[in-house]
């Protein structure tokens, strides 16, 4: 494992460092943050100073503290959503590809119906009916996202399903679960890993945009998306405060994709 | 043609001296072609033969001053008509490619863009090089299509690639290569992907056209009999080294090197074999079976065939004749519509899902492409070990011991147990497939074109192995192939299929002896022989008939 990381190209190493720093931030947020998450500590939109390294926000809370706590909320929610959507999407996708016939048709049409609604509108609709709590938020985005995962995993699995080694397994009398888990899934992994990285970033941005519209994570909980929204007004006064959470989103997105690119490269080499 | 190039002997059209080509394998540069010398005169046809990995294609591409990505010309010189391709600026070499030197790839089906009409793809090269206008190119195309004996030459170009047959597509590709009246055409295994009857069409077309236009050609193949029909001179390559070079007729009559002799000998592999005549009972009995993929359309009609214990039945026919469909019916992948199949006395249910595990175990299958028949993510131990634990409930050490034993039976080292399929060669992979089938202790193995994706020498090894296993273990084979040389080598009985029906069947000695059914005759006479005059003689015979 260690040599593996050593051999990784520079870009992947940079990505890993970014992810590692973010993970550390999540774990050590209370220790790292100089103030409390919702504590009012200074003037509104104070500039950078020795007390407030990134200045303060629109209510006078310390920006650095908010960004640190924001990492905790945003990333953990995004990870849960992506995991959920992959568990649901992949199992449905593989099932549809392996079984074919009416199973494929039923799941496929159901997914088409969900996908027919613009995701943002769909999420807005459900969230305003059900109310915005974090479990609902996770559930809604996970289901919306699993339709995309379903499409990708089904398409990939369809390609593998026609290979002779799958036929060999069928002729041997293997059950559905064994074929899905041992013959198809390992070969479908590279594109799915790539999809995982992308999905993670999209979910991230999606939560941010929901928060921006006021339906995501509710104040006063710190989260990068809503922080951008709340501080957006500052831009017109030439104040940098909305830039910090935005930069945090961008940096993590890039970091995740750098690592995913590398994993993709490695696994596609093995395939030949 | 020989006389023609004698006149210009002093000045070769293409002159390669001490050429070294290296390939990058991810860590270091290793040599693919070593110290190669090659001369090609105007109007001469040079055959390059050897097994895969011999460096034939790499050398062929180098004749255009081109190397594939990941390869480089390490040293040596390539001169084309006085111009050094290694030193000349890239732009002037690009000008040559596709205008004065052109290339015909192995699989026309994969090389044509399915989204454009043939004629547009034909015209692309000449127009790009500014040699002719689009309308001139169309005229030229029609002329070439006619010379290449394509049906309806005026209109065939306006079809899309999927609308013409494989043999026609390959000829269209030859036409494309000839569009600019090149000085040299490089043919890279142009007939390997075709079946014997189609191969003849293409060979005849190529032979006539290059003779007529006096084009020089480099013909790359692993099939000596094919090259014998076309080449004036032959170079035998192996592992990037030149084994032997010389006049085609001389080499076929009197090969100097041991390797060349072995290549020649493969064709006449063990035509007769000692057989255990005991146990003549029938293992597989197919009675009046029909089946098809669409409703109301039967791909195969009224199939009757019998496989006896310890015997090999070969099913022969060109592609599309329904051979593989028969295999799919027996395995249950395609349920039969009518008729009955019995397997060692018991009635076999037509549908795979309703067969029990014991029945599945006794009927195993080996595929044409070992690359896709092995899961690239599983180690050999898992691949061979799974049937053991699945059918016999073996565990842990027992499985490892048996897998090692099986590897020994297919003549592979025990150390392969921890490898992935990607770490083995094509022939070794096919041996793994055989070991996996053997792991189930089957009574019948269906072999679907098991040797057609392999080189001759490797294929010979596989056939010998299959025969040895049959003698030792008493397995029966249903052997599906389009290659009659393989049939001669391995079959006890032959079933000839054409358009979904069995046209002739019987013992090998009977089928191979005249009088033949018309289609059997066509198949038999289409197998290239080592005689360089074979193609000409055959055409005369067919014209007379």
TrEMBL record, chain A:
<feature type="domain" description="ABC transmembrane type-1">
    <location>
        <begin position="71"/>
        <end position="264"/>
    </location>
</feature>
<dbReference type="InterPro" id="IPR050366">
    <property type="entry name" value="BP-dependent_transpt_permease"/>
</dbReference>
<feature type="transmembrane region" description="Helical">
    <location>
        <begin position="196"/>
        <end position="217"/>
    </location>
</feature>
<dbReference type="GO" id="GO:0005886">
    <property type="term" value="C:plasma membrane"/>
</dbReference>
<keyword id="KW-1133">Transmembrane helix</keyword>
<feature type="transmembrane region" description="Helical">
    <location>
        <begin position="12"/>
        <end position="29"/>
    </location>
</feature>
<dbReference type="Pfam" id="PF00528">
    <property type="entry name" value="BPD_transp_1"/>
</dbReference>
<comment type="similarity">
    <text>Belongs to the binding-protein-dependent transport system permease family.</text>
</comment>
<dbReference type="GO" id="GO:0055085">
    <property type="term" value="P:transmembrane transport"/>
</dbReference>
<keyword id="KW-0813">Transport</keyword>
<keyword id="KW-0472">Membrane</keyword>
<feature type="transmembrane region" description="Helical">
    <location>
        <begin position="243"/>
        <end position="264"/>
    </location>
</feature>
<keyword id="KW-0812">Transmembrane</keyword>
<feature type="transmembrane region" description="Helical">
    <location>
        <begin position="120"/>
        <end position="144"/>
    </location>
</feature>
<protein>
    <submittedName>
        <fullName>Peptide/nickel transport system permease protein</fullName>
    </submittedName>
</protein>
<keyword id="KW-1003">Cell membrane</keyword>
<feature type="transmembrane region" description="Helical">
    <location>
        <begin position="75"/>
        <end position="100"/>
    </location>
</feature>
<dbReference type="InterPro" id="IPR035906">
    <property type="entry name" value="MetI-like_sf"/>
</dbReference>
<dbReference type="InterPro" id="IPR000515">
    <property type="entry name" value="MetI-like"/>
</dbReference>
TrEMBL record, chain B:
<dbReference type="InterPro" id="IPR003439">
    <property type="entry name" value="ABC_transporter-like_ATP-bd"/>
</dbReference>
<keyword id="KW-0547">Nucleotide-binding</keyword>
<keyword id="KW-1278">Translocase</keyword>
<dbReference type="InterPro" id="IPR050388">
    <property type="entry name" value="ABC_Ni/Peptide_Import"/>
</dbReference>
<protein>
    <submittedName>
        <fullName>Peptide/nickel transport system ATP-binding protein</fullName>
    </submittedName>
</protein>
<keyword id="KW-0472">Membrane</keyword>
<keyword id="KW-0813">Transport</keyword>
<keyword id="KW-1003">Cell membrane</keyword>
<dbReference type="Pfam" id="PF08352">
    <property type="entry name" value="oligo_HPY"/>
</dbReference>
<keyword id="KW-0067">ATP-binding</keyword>
<dbReference type="GO" id="GO:0015833">
    <property type="term" value="P:peptide transport"/>
</dbReference>
<dbReference type="Pfam" id="PF00005">
    <property type="entry name" value="ABC_tran"/>
</dbReference>
<dbReference type="InterPro" id="IPR013563">
    <property type="entry name" value="Oligopep_ABC_C"/>
</dbReference>
<dbReference type="GO" id="GO:0016887">
    <property type="term" value="F:ATP hydrolysis activity"/>
</dbReference>
<dbReference type="InterPro" id="IPR027417">
    <property type="entry name" value="P-loop_NTPase"/>
</dbReference>
<keyword id="KW-0997">Cell inner membrane</keyword>
<comment type="similarity">
    <text>Belongs to the ABC transporter superfamily.</text>
</comment>
<dbReference type="GO" id="GO:0005886">
    <property type="term" value="C:plasma membrane"/>
</dbReference>
<dbReference type="InterPro" id="IPR003593">
    <property type="entry name" value="AAA+_ATPase"/>
</dbReference>
<dbReference type="InterPro" id="IPR017871">
    <property type="entry name" value="ABC_transporter-like_CS"/>
</dbReference>
<feature type="domain" description="ABC transporter">
    <location>
        <begin position="284"/>
        <end position="524"/>
    </location>
</feature>
<feature type="domain" description="ABC transporter">
    <location>
        <begin position="16"/>
        <end position="264"/>
    </location>
</feature>
């Amino acid at each position: 494992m260690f040599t593996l990381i050593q051999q990784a190209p520079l870009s992947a190493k940079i990505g890993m460092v970014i992810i590692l720093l973010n993970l550390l931030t999540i774990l050590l947020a209370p220790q790292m943050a100089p103030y409390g998450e919702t504590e009012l500590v200074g003037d509104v939109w104070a500039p950078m100073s020795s007390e407030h390294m990134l200045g303060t926000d629109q209510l006078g809370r310390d920006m650095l503290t908010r960004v640190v706590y924001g990492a905790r909320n945003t990333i953990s929610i995004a990870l849960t959503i992506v995991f959920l959507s992959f568990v649901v999407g992949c199992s449905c996708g593989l099932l549809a590809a392996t079984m074919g016939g009416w199973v494929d048709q039923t799941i496929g049409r159901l997914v088409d119906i969900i996908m027919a609604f613009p995701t943002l509108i769909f999420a807005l609709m459900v969230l305003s009916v059900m109310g915005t709590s974090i479990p609902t938020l996770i559930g809604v985005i996970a289901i919306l996202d699993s339709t995309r995962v379903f499409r990708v995993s089904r398409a990939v699995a369809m390609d593998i399903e026609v290979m002779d080694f799958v036929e060999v397994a069928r002729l041997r009398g293997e059950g559905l679960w064994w074929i899905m888990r041992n013959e198809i899934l390992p070969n479908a992994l590279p594109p799915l890993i790539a999809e995982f990285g992308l999905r993670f970033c999209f979910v991230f941005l999606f939560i941010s945009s929901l928060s921006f519209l006021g339906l995501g994570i509710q104040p006063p909980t710190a989260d990068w998306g809503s922080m951008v929204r709340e501080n957006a007004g500052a831009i017109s006064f030439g104040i940098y405060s909305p830039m910090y959470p935005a930069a945090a989103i961008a940096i993590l997105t890039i970091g995740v994709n750098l690592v995913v690119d590398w994993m993709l490269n490695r696994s596609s080499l093995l395939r030949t | 043609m020989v006389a023609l190039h004698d006149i210009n002997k002093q000045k070769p059209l293409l002159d390669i001296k001490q050429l070294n080509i290296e390939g990058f394998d991810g860590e270091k540069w290793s040599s693919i072609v070593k110290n190669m010398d090659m001369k090609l005169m105007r109007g001469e046809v040079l055959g390059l033969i050897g097994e895969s990995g011999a460096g034939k294609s790499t050398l062929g591409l180098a004749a255009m001053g081109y190397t594939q990505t990941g390869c480089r010309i390490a040293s040596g010189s390539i001169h084309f008509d006085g111009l050094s391709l290694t030193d000349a600026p890239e732009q002037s070499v690009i000008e040559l490619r596709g205008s004065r030197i052109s290339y015909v790839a192995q699989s026309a089906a994969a090389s044509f863009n399915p989204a454009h009409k043939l004629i547009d793809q034909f015209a692309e090269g000449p127009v790009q090089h500014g040699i002719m206008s689009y309308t001139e190119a169309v005229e030229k195309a029609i002329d070439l299509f006619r010379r290449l004996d394509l049906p309806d030459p005026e209109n065939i170009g306006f079809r899309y690639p999927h609308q013409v047959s494989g043999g026609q597509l390959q000829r269209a590709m030859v036409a494309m290569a000839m569009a600019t009246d090149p000085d040299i055409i490089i043919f890279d295994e142009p007939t390997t992907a075709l079946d014997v009857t189609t191969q003849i069409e293409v060979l005849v077309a190529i032979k006539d056209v290059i003779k007529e236009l006096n084009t020089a050609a480099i013909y790359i193949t692993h099939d000596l009999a094919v090259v014998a029909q076309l080449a004036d001179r032959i170079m035998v390559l192996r592992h990037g080294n030149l084994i032997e070079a010389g006049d085609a007729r001389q080499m076929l009559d009197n090969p100097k090197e041991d390797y060349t002799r072995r290549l020649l000998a493969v064709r006449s592999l063990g035509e007769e074999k000692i057989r255990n005549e005991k146990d003549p009972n029938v293992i597989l009995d197919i009675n009046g079976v029909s089946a098809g993929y669409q409703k109301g359309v039967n791909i195969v009609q009224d199939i009757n065939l019998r496989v006896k214990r310890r015997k090999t039945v070969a099913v022969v026919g060109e592609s599309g004749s329904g051979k593989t469909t028969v295999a799919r019916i027996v395995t249950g992948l395609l349920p039969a519509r009518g008729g009955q199949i019995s397997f060692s006395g018991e009635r076999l249910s037509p549908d795979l899902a309703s067969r029990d595990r014991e029945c599945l175990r006794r009927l195993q299958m080996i595929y044409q492409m070992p690359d896709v028949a092995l899961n690239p993510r599983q180690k050999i131990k898992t691949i061979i070990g799974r049937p053991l634990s699945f059918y016999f409930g073996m565990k842990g050490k027992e499985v490892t011991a048996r897998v090692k034993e099986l590897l020994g039976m297919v003549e592979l080292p025990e150390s392969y147990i921890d490898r992935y399929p990607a770490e083995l060669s094509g022939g070794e992979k096919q041996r793994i497939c055989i070991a996996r089938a053997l792991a189930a202790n089957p009574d019948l193995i269906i072999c679907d074109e098991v040797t057609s994706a392999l080189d001759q020498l490797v294929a010979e090894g596989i056939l010998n192995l299959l025969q040895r296993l049959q003698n030792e273990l008493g397995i029966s084979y249903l052997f599906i192939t389009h290659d009659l040389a393989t049939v001669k080598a391995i079959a006890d009985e032959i079933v000839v299929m054409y358009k979904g029906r069995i046209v002739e069947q019987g013992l090998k000695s009977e089928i191979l002896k005249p009088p033949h059914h018309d289609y059997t005759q066509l198949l038999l006479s289409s197998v290239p022989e080592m005689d360089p005059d074979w193609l000409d003689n055959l055409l005369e015979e067919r014209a007379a008939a």
